[in-house]
Input
Amino acid sequence: MLRWVGRRMKGLEYDLNASYAYADQAKGVLHLTKADFKLELGADLAGQLIHEARHLGIPAYGHVPCTVPGVGSDPSCDPTIAEDFDGGGSHAIAALWLSWIANRSEWPYSARKSAEKTVEWVLKNRINDTYNADRFACRYLGRNVWNTRAACR
Ligand SMILES: [Zn+2]
Output
């Protein structure tokens, strides 16, 4: 996975002035902040790198305005969730990778639980397509995150 990240980027900056991580699409450089290195577990840092590296694709990937209930309309969402790395947006592919960490990896229990919480947060706050967010949640978390009264089918 990190080889995929490395192929997409030309540089990685530890950016003390940035208020959040971002991808400079023109230069192919990922900028990480102090906050990214506070991430206690390597899985979360890797998830951030995967997210930002997706922004460097050709064509470069950009977020869309959020339509998720209660999130506001900032352009920080993905239209939907996807289960392939070429088709998914930045949040989608990071969530997919973190789902694998949560369910299939041999990372410590705390890392797997943290990855699961991040996936749930992304599905509830950064994926506009709540129907498919629930379908993804059922497959990877074993429960809906939106239609919580319904059982997974
Ligand atoms: Zn992004």
User: Anything to note?
Assistant: The chain is about 45% helix and 5% strand. The first strand starts at residue 11 and ends at 14. The two ends are 30 Å apart (CA to CA).
